[in-house]
């Protein structure tokens, strides 16, 4: 019995550390969003995204080198072409989302991005051959209704800038569905290594054409963005080493709270009641979908 109690205590301790890693990661993500918006108001998004991916690639190479089996083993993939595609997909998603910060706003963009788990579930049907029952189907419909509430199209001129966060959510969904596909056969280290390296290659192929010298007073924000990009992924990986996806996902929705705080405190954005109600609906639908997929054993 004492051995059983010791095992329970150890498990609880590990989970507590895991939850701490999640909270740390989403806090860093929120800071990262603030840095991205700050720089996007002054420079072409792809230019500093390129530097961000250089730092990310350097981090994942070192991280993989110190993982079991080393760098060469981490590069071995059963789905190499899909893995190579994920890096460019993430670059595209980051570009669209950060650009959306400048038009639709940080708070509005983050509210719409909460629909990403629902988009992944929708895409899993044609791309992964999964089946969506009436429960998850209902959750998807409710979640999409929540997105409409956020957009508030009734009696208001639809702003075309809102198409950017919608496109960002779709791009993030494609990245998520590809991650789910490779995750069935490759390790997390392999996935993050391919993402960083091939994302950096694609960003470097495009970024120089839009390069604008960074003013000295903006280098601290760029440095913070690079550090946040690496450390947020590190802590999220650490969290997944002790927690399941269904344990991590609910906490990640706290990022919208932190990002909204950054948007209102530092950028003077206004939060409307429809954004709050819509985000609550979307998050609730997303949580139901995540828990339902957990019950069905979908990875």
UniProtKB/TrEMBL annotation:
Electron transport among keywords: no
Residue ranges annotated for the EamA domain, each copy included: 17-151, 162-289
Statement: the UniProt record of this protein carries the keyword Plastid: no
Keywords from the named record: Membrane, Transmembrane, Transmembrane helix
Pfam families in the cross-refs: EamA
Chain segments annotated as transmembrane: 20-39, 51-72, 84-101, 107-125, 137-156, 162-179, 191-212, 218-236, 248-267, 273-291
UniProt xrefs under SUPFAM superfamilies: Multidrug resistance efflux transporter EmrE
GO-annotated cellular components: membrane
Highest taxon in the source lineage: Bacteria
PANTHER family to which the protein is assigned, alphabetical: ACYL-MALONYL CONDENSING ENZYME-RELATED (PTHR22911), BLR2811 PROTEIN (PTHR22911:SF103)
Annotated protein name in UniProt: Drug/metabolite transporter (DMT)-like permease
